[in-house]
Amino acid sequence: MVLPAAGDCLLRNAWICGKYVSTRRDTILADLRQHVILTVVAVVIGFLLSVPLTLFVRRFRRAEGAVIGLTSILYGVPSVALFAVLVPFTGLTARTVEIGLVTYTLVIFVRNNLAGLDAVPADVRDAAQGMGMGSTRMLLRVELPLALPAILAGFRVATVSTVALVTVGALVGTGGLGQELNDAFSSYFKAEALTASVLCVLLAVVADLLIVGVGWWLTPWRRGRQT
Amino acid sequence: MTQRRILTALPALALGAVLAACGGSSSGGTPAPAGSSGGGASGSLTVGAAGFTESNVLAQMYADLLEKAGFTVSIKTVASQEIFQSSLEKGTIAVVPEYAATYANSLQTEVTGTQSPTAASPDLQTTLTNLEKYAKKKGLTHLDPANAVDQNAFAVTTDYASQHHLTTLSDLGASGLSVKLAATAECSARPFCKPGLEQTYKIKIGSILPLGFDTLPVKQAVKSGKAQLGLVATTDATLASFGLVVLTDDKHLQNADNLIPIVNASVLQQHPEIATAINPLAQLLTTADLGNLDKQVDVERKTVKDVAQAYLQSKGLL
Predict the structure, then answer these.
(1) Is the pLDDT of residue A186 over 90?
(2) Of B8, B301, B311, B314, which to mutate for an interface test with A (greatest number of A Cβ within 10 Å)?
(3) How far is A23 from chain B (nearest CA, A)?
(4) Is A169 a member of any domain?
(5) What is the third-level CATH fold of B42-149+257-314?
(6) How far is A168 from chain B (nearest CA, A)?
(7) Tens digit of pLDDT for each residue in B21-35?
(8) Is domain B152-247 given the CATH code 2.60.40.1180 in the classification?
C-alpha cells in the first residue's frame, strides 16, 4: 500500500481534490450515468403521460381544476415520504425512484402544455377551421407548432428540477450523484460533496442548453427573436 | 445504542408515521419484483449497507466474502437501515450488517409496537435470545456476532487517568472526583449516560457540556480540560491523537451492540454457504479493528472497497 504524501488533498479534506476524482473515477462515472438515465426516462415518460392529460383537459374543460389540482397535490408530496410509501411495493429499485420523478414532472408538463395551447390566438384557429382543418389536423399543424415554445419551456423546467430531484433517490439506493452527496454528508467528505454538486449543476446546465438547442431547431420561424 | 444511530433513526421513525397515516391508500398492491436476488439457481445476492462508514465497510466485506464463495453479489446502499427492512424481510436483500442490541430493540418495537423495548441487554447472549425471538416472526435470522462492539464509551485524558490511577469507570466512581461531562444534551436523561454513570458507578457529575456524541468539540473539550469526561464511541480510532483514553465499562452499563449479520431466513436455507462464507469474519473482527477500518475511510479517505479488501487479505480470508 502506498502511503499518501504530506499535503495529500484527501487527508486535508480539501474542497477541491483531484485525487478524489482519480481514485473514485469509476464510481463517479457510473453514478453520473445513472443520474442521466434516471432524468431522461423520467422526463420522457412524464411528458408522454402529460399528453393524454392535456388533451383530456382540453376536451373536458371543467376537469381542468381537478387535473391541475391533483398534479399539484402530487407535486407537494415530499419525495422522502413518497419513496417510503412505495418501497414496500416496488422495493429498492429504479422503478420506485422513477415513479416519484415522473409524478413530479406532471404538474409542470400539463400546465405548460395547456398554457401553450390556450395561447393560440382565436383568429388563427378560425382561419384554420376556415381552411377546412379538422380538430386533429388543426392540433398537429397549427396549435402544436404555436404552442411549442411553451411546451419546451415546460421541458426545461421539468428537466432541471428532475436533475436536482434524482439525488433524493439515494435514500433508497438509486440516486445517481445523490449517492455521493449522501456519503459526503455522513462522513464529512468535502471533495465528494463539492464534486458531486458541481457535476449536478453542470448536468442541469448542459441539459437545459440541449433543450434550448432543440427548440431553436424545431422553431425556425422564431430564430432571431428573443425567447 | 449509540447516539449517532438514534439520530439517524429519527427521520425513519417519522417516515413510519407517514406510512401508517397513508396506509392502504397507495396505488396497487403489486408484488415485489423478484429482483436480482433472493436465491434461485442464479446464486446472485444483494447485500444491504446503511449509508454510514461502518455499515458500508462491513457490507463490502460480506460482499467480498460471498463473491469468493461463488455468489454474484451487488451492494445496495441506502440512507438508513430502516429503509431496507421490508426488502430484507422479502429476501430481495439477503444480508445486512447490524448491531445486535440496537437491532433487537428495533425488531421488538416493530413486532410488538412497544415504545420502550427491552430486548437489548448488556449481555450478548440475552440480547441474541431476544433478537432471535423477534427475528423469527419477520422471517429473519442472524449469523455469528463479531467480537467487535460499537458502543458509547467515556474517555478521559491519559494524564488525568494516570494522575488519579483510573482504568475503569468503577475507578472513577471510587475516586470520588467530581467531573464535567462533555456529551449530548440528552445524556442527562438516557439510562446509559448520566443516570447510569451516577447510579451504577457512583460517579459525581457536576454538569454536562452539550457538545454532542463523539464530536470534535467533545474531544477538544476533554483535551483542553474544559471537561474531564467525554462521551465517545468505542470505534473512534482518533482518540489517541487527542491524548484520550477510554475508561472500561466494567459493570456493563452499555448494551451488547456487537456487529452481527442479519440474514433472510429462507435465503439462508436455500444458500447455507452464506453462513460458511461470512462467519469466519466474526471471530477475527475486533473493536479496535473496526475503529481502524472506520478511520481509514473517514480520515485517510481510502475507498471502502480498498479498505475492506486489504483487511480481509491481511486476515487470510480472501
Answers:
(1) no
(2) B301
(3) 8
(4) yes
(5) D-Maltodextrin-Binding Protein; domain 2 (3.40.190)
(6) 10
(7) 333 333 333 333 333
(8) no
Q: What is the pLDDT of residues B98-108, one digit of tens each?
A: 999 999 999 99
Chain B interface residues (partner A, CB cutoff 8 A): 11, 15-16, 18-19, 22, 26, 28-30, 32-33, 35, 51-53, 56, 76-79, 83-84, 86-87, 90, 92-93, 297-301, 303, 310
- CATH 3.40.190.10 domain span(s) along chain B: 42-149+257-314
Which residues lie below 8 Å from residue A29, measured CB to CB, with a gap of 6+? none
Beta bridge partners of B73: B45
Q: What is the mean pLDDT of residues A173-189?
A: 92
Q: Answer whether A11 sits within 8 Å of B26, measured CB to CB.
A: no
Q: In what order do the strands lie in the sheet with B244-247?
A: B204-210, B178-183, B229-233, B152-157, B244-247
Q: Does the residue A48 lie in any domain? A: yes
Q: Which of B35, B86, B303 sits opposite A87 (nearest CB)?
A: B86
Chain B residues near residue A84 by CB distance under 8 angstroms: 15-16, 18-19, 83
pLDDT score for B41: 36
Domain that holds residue A141: 18-216
Predicted pLDDT of residue B39: 40
Domain with CATH 3.40.190.120 in chain B: 152-247
Rg (CA), chain B: 21
- Give the C-alpha separation, A190 to A9, whole Å: 10
Q: What's the structural domain count of chain A?
A: 1
CA distance B226 to chain A (A): 25
Residues in chain A within 8 Å Cβ distance of B56: 183
Is B270 strand, coil or helix? helix
The size of the A-B interface in CB pairs under 8 A is 86
* Percent of chain B residues past pLDDT 90, beyond the cut: 77
Residues A160-169 have a mean pLDDT of: 96
Residues of chain B falling short of pLDDT 50:
1, 3-41
CATH of the domain at A136: 1.10.3720.10
Nearest to A172 among B16, B78, B301 (CB): B78
Cβ proximity of A187 and B297 under 8 Å: yes
pLDDT per position as a tens digit, A130-157: 999 999 999 999 999 999 999 999 999 9
Q: What pLDDT does B42 receive?
A: 56
| Cα distance between residue A90 and residue A130, in whole Å | 52
Q: Has residue A148 been placed in a domain? A: yes
Give the separation between CA A139 and CA A126, rounded to whole angstroms: 13
Instruction: Return the residue in B13, B45, B74, B78 with the most chain A beta carbons within 10 A, the one to mutate for interface testing.
Output: B78
- Tell me, what's the pLDDT at B11? 43
Q: Which of B18, B29, B300 sits opposite A11 (nearest CB)?
A: B300
Q: Grid coordinates standing for A136?
A: 386533429
Cell numbers describing residue B291: 475503529
Could you say which residues from 20 to 39 on chain A have a Cβ atom under 8 Å away from some Cβ of chain B? Answer: 20, 23-24, 27
Evaluate whether residue A107 is within a structural domain.
Answer: yes
- What angle is formed at CA A143 by the lines to CA A67 and CA A102, rounded to 5 degrees? 35
Model pTM greater than 0.80?
yes
- How many angstroms separate the Cα of B93 from the Cα of each of A65, B248, B305? 43, 37, 19
